[in-house]
Amino acid sequence: MLVFSFLCFQWSAAQTPDLSRYKQQVQRLSEDVAYFDVEKINNQFYMIIGGGGNVGVFVGDSEVILIDNKYEVLEAVLMDALRTFTDKPIKYMINTHFHHDHSDGNKTYGKQGIPIIAHENAKKRMQATAELYGGILPFLEGFVQDKYPENALPVITYDSKISLHESGEHIELYHFGYGHTDGDSVVYFTEANIMHTGDTFVGYRYPYVDLYNGGSIQGIIQVLENIAAITNDDTIIMPGHGPITSRKEVLQIKTALTELYKKTLEGLQKGLTPKAIAASIPTTVGKAENIKLNYIKSIALEQERAKD
Ligand SMILES: [Zn+2]
Q: What whole-number distance in Å separates Cα of residue 106 and Cα of residue 95?
């Protein structure tokens, strides 16, 4: 019998959420991370790497726009990295989703009055304490993210698409439905043909799917399909984590996940165990045999949930 609950975790006023895992992580980062690497794409686009999700930077004529902002405790480090290539002020920030490693920095920038833009569900998730799903990445088991203070929340939200215009660039934020979470944005700079995918795509490896917070494995395959549909072979892709890459890799992981998903459903239909299903699928995605098995188990759980 399944003992997992897919209900969104909510803490009543009487209960204290266990934030120890988050606090340990923040402590470790503040001790270990002294600098970030900066990858220059061209004179207008940079990616800041390390200590959380990749931060995409667009340098406009007089101001800069940041996509994601890592952790509050690393903001001085992030600013040091930013100031190696621009002195311009930050006009606004985009959050690709609510996870702490991408938007914890809101706690710094919101206070400074820098407007934050995100999908409406990302804002909703930030307004509540959330437990992350540990079924794909076991190190996230029991990881609790606290709700954000009011002044760290996005001030502009959208439903399916929003367009921003800056220094001759058109910035399209797309929400393609349930994927990594239920509040993901992919951010496409159409003139430059550069996209930041957030964690819906992290290179040729299994993307983490947060089943406790609206994520869906079936959904993320569709999200990858949508990313492939609006980009082309020349699009430069900034993934949520990992090095800068291209649409080719998006298509490769989409194909691998589609195959895994199909074989899992067939296997479940035949009554096979997740282990037997895993054995029938060659590992082509990284060498993460255990993550493949976790993925299959998570697909099975998603199927159970769909029946409820
Ligand atoms: Zn994430």
A: 9
